[in-house]
Amino acid sequence: MYNVAIVGATGAVGEELFRVLEEYNFPVKKLVPLASARSVGKEVEFKGETLKVKELTCDVFEKEEIDIAFFSAGGSVSAKFAPCAVKAGAVVIDNTSYFRMDKDVPLVVPEVNPEDIALWRKKGIIANPNCSTIQMVISLAPLHKEFNIKRVEVATYQAVSGAGKKGMEELFEQMRAIFNFKLDKVVDEREVFQYQIALNVIPHIDKFMDNGFTREEMKMVNETNKIMHSNIEVAPTCVRVPVLRSHSEAITIHCEKEVDVKRAREVLESFEDIKVIDNPEKNEYPMPIIATDTDYVYVGRIRKDLFDNKTLHFFNVADQLRVGAATNAVRIALKWIEMEGEKFLKEKDK
Length: 350
Ligand code: A2P
What we know:
By secondary structure, this protein is α/β, with parallel strands linked by helices. It has 10 helices and 14 strands. It has helices at 12-23, 60-63, 75-87, 131-147, 164-179, 183-188, 215-228, 261-269, 288-291, 322-349, and strands at 2-7, 28-35, 43-46, 49-52, 54-55, 68-71, 91-94, 125-127, 149-157, 233-237, 247-255, 274-276, 297-304, 311-318. The strands form 3 sheets. The protein has a 6-stranded parallel beta sheet, with helices on both faces. Strands 10-9-11-14-13-12 form a 6-stranded mixed beta sheet. Strand 12 (274-276), helix 9 and strand 13 form a beta-alpha-beta unit. The longest helix is centred in the last third of the chain and has 28 residues, at 322-349. Residues 8-12, 14, 35-36, 38-39, 56, 73-74, 77, 164-166 line the site of adenosine-2'-5'-diphosphate (A2P). Adenosine-2'-5'-diphosphate is lined by residues 8-12, 14, 35-36, 38-39, 56, 73-74, 77, 164-166. Substrate binds at residues 158, 240. Keywords: Amino-acid biosynthesis, Diaminopimelate biosynthesis, Lysine biosynthesis, Methionine biosynthesis, NADP, Oxidoreductase, Threonine biosynthesis. Residues 3-120 form the Semialdehyde dehydrogenase NAD-binding domain.
């Protein structure tokens, strides 16, 4: 059993982590919710118990004898406090982008590259990839094995909860204002998105880079290849849409081998944590309302290109707070326990 800390316990991903840890019956000895000083004393529920949020400080990990620390409070918080947790003897599972491309930090999607967890000792940290990347690589992995992917083109449709609770609140406020005919004022007061998000789409997530892509898009380029140990060309366009939860992706893969829709469906269906919903004759395909609150990547609209027999198109949807964040983090931790847990606890006992 393990002492577990959740850093960012009051945030969108933090709240989901409590639910996922409970659902997966995670071997928790003690759970310590941590957030900023603003949230001290706030209450969270875990397995029918009420826990009080404590302040995140550098000392808290040692004081609480933490073994596993989940971080979901932004990159600067991870940069400052993850080393404190490691120093106190914990393994850190970090949801932010801060350590992802560090060569001494494994970047893991357990369905795709569980073996990379073994590298955790280099820094004591395992990074959880970007949400759009996680759901994409889960569907790419079986197709790559079958058809050898050379290039991926992807357009995302990303929910507002990807920008945290404030993102959801901003969409709610704007929707309410629309029904009250007071949108102008509310849009002037927006904080999170660059433009009005209600009844709009914004082809801009995170900062623009010199190459014309955004940082969110570059995460998909770089993280995909680190996870898959590949050299695939990735061409993403990341778009924010007024959906509360679950990201969608329209994906095109260009392969070395000729693609086959029936075979693609078979390999996707037999891959861990994928559900294929693909019945055009019954109007059945994946959508955010199907994926929300579940732990699967849903794939559908699978079709061969009309002009190139080595090109396949499909649509994929997953709950990015779960598959793209909390569930992936918990799956990493469970795999880590399976691979390293016994040794870790023995060393701690010495
Ligand atoms: P708090 O609620 O105390 O600000 P979201 O991604 O939904 O916006 O949530 C961000 C999470 O990260 C919240 O739990 C938030 O806590 C936490 N957080 C943000 N900044 C800090 C900080 N400087 N120290 C500790 N926790 C922080």
